[in-house]
Amino acid sequence: MKGPGESYRHRLQHDVPTGIAAFLCFIALLLPIIGVTALLVDGTHMGARESPLYWLLLGLPAIWSWHMMSYMRTVLRTIRPALFLAPFIAAGVLAAASFSGREMTAYWIMLLLTVAVCAAGGIIYNRSLLAREGAGD
C-alpha cells in the first residue's frame, strides 16, 4: 500500500512541466561545469578524460541529476535556486576565462545558452506541479 507521499511522488513523476524543468535545470548547471572543466583541465577532450579532476567535476552533476530523476525531495527543492544561480556561475566562468586569456567565443555561447535555458526552465517551472505544491514534506 502506498502512503500519501508516494502518490504525490507519482504525480510529480507524471507532471510534464516538472520533468522538463528538472531537465533544463540539469542542462543549465552542466554548461558552466563544462566551462570550468575546460578551464581547469588542459588538453583535448580525450586527453582531459585521463585527469581525475575531469571525472570529479563532471561526476558531481551526474550524481545530483540521478537523485533529481528519482524525485528526491531535497534535490527537487534545489531546482528554483539552481535556475536562478546558474547564469551567475556561467558569468563567473566567463570572467575566469577572460582573465586567463582564453578564446572567448565558446564561453560567450555557454553564457548565452545558460541564460536562455534558465529563462525557459523558470517559465516552465512556474507552471509545474512542483511549483504549485512544493516538493512535499
What is the topological layout?
Blueprint (H helix, E strand, L loop, with lengths): L3 H11 L1 H25 L4 H4 L3 H18 L3 H4 L2 H21 L5 H22 L2 H5 L4
Helix pairs in contact: 2-4, 2-6, 2-7, 6-7
Description:
The protein starts with a helix and ends with a helix. The mean pLDDT is 88. It has eight helices and no strands. 80% of the residues lie in helices and 0% in strands. The chain is mainly α and 137 residues long. It has one domain. The longest helix is centred in the N-terminal third of the chain and has 25 residues. Helix 2 packs parallel to helix 6 and helix 6 packs antiparallel against helix 7.
Gist of the model:
The protein has 137 residues and is an all-alpha fold.
Main traits of this protein?
8 helices, mainly alpha, 137 residues
User: How large a portion of the residues is in β-strands, by DSSP E?
Assistant: under 5%
Number of domains: 1
Helix and strand run: HHHHHHHH
What is the terminal-to-terminal distance? 19 Å
* Rg computed from alpha carbons, rounded to a whole number of angstroms: 17 Å
* Rounded average pLDDT: 88
Return residue spans where pLDDT drops below 50 for at least 5 consecutive residues. Answer: none
Roughly what percent helix? over 70%
Number of H- or I-type helical stretches: 8
Largest sheet: none
Content-based structural category: mainly alpha
